[in-house]
Design brief:
Helices cover 69% and strands 6% of the residues. It is elongated, with a radius of gyration of 22 Å. With 211 residues, the chain is mainly alpha-helical. The protein has two domains: 50 residues; 147 residues, no CATH class. A three-stranded antiparallel β-sheet has the order 1-2-3. It contains seven helices and three strands; from the N terminus they run αααβββαααα. Helix 1 packs antiparallel against helix 2, helix 4 runs antiparallel to helix 5 and helix 5 packs antiparallel against helix 6.
Length: 211
């Protein structure tokens, strides 16, 4: 792990620890509609944002592809084996005379990271709802990616290798970002979220700093 990563992680951790201490120092009040200092929206926001930033930091430095790749590879092999004979060895699925090697691009590791970051950097979403959104997004992306892999395997078996390569390249180079953007828009509509990821988070942070 690089020295800069350690410094960033230490700084975020120290800031989070300070916010937690400040939170616990506030007196608790059980009165309804209380307007005393027991509830501090600014402190609540900074605590939430710091936790979310730490999660994003860990997401970027930890090898999550070691989790995503095996799950995607094994699931794809299981589905493809229902239609044709397959042989799985490490991260390679053999189909007929063809080998499908599952690297990070195939398992959409970067798409998962982008999706999670966009969800985490959206303000004014409570914890329960955010967990539901994350679960919906991750599962949806996983299922759509399995469908994409299955379709690509179908092209490989029934058409030329050039057709497979061209389709795979289009999915990887062009449609991956559009894929995540479309999924975000759909999830936002399902959960009726009006905030724009990152942009509204920046506006919320600026308003809290200025107040």
């Amino acid at each position: 792990m690089c020295f800069a990563c350690i410094e960033i992680g230490t700084g975020l951790g120290a800031f989070l620890f300070g916010l937690i201490l400040a939170k616990f120092k506030l007196k608790k009040c059980n009165k309804k509609n209380c307007k005393c200092d027991c509830h501090n929206p600014k402190l609540d926001y900074f605590l939430s944002l710091t936790i979310r930033l730490i999660i994003i930091f860990l997401l970027l430095i930890l090898p999550i592809n070691h989790i995503i790749n095996p799950i995607t590879t094994n699931t794809s092999n299981f589905i493809l084996s229902k239609f044709t004979e397959t042989n799985l060895e490490n991260n390679i699925i053999q189909i007929g005379n063809h080998n499908l090697e599952f690297v990070d691009a195939c398992t959409a590791t970067s798409a998962y990271i982008l999706l999670i970051i966009l969800i985490l950097l959206t303000p004014k979403i409570n914890l329960k709802k955010r967990i539901k959104i994350l679960a919906t997004g991750i599962i949806s992306l996983f299922l759509l990616n399995i469908l994409r892999i299955s379709f690509s395997a179908y092209l490989l078996l029934n058409f030329s290798k050039d057709t497979f390569e061209a389709t795979h390249l289009i999915f990887w180079k062009i449609l991956s970002t559009i894929f995540v953007a479309g999924l975000i828009i759909l999830i936002w509509k399902i959960f009726k979220i009006k905030q724009i990821p990152v942009y509204d988070e920046y506006k919320e942070l600026k308003s809290k700093l200025d107040s």
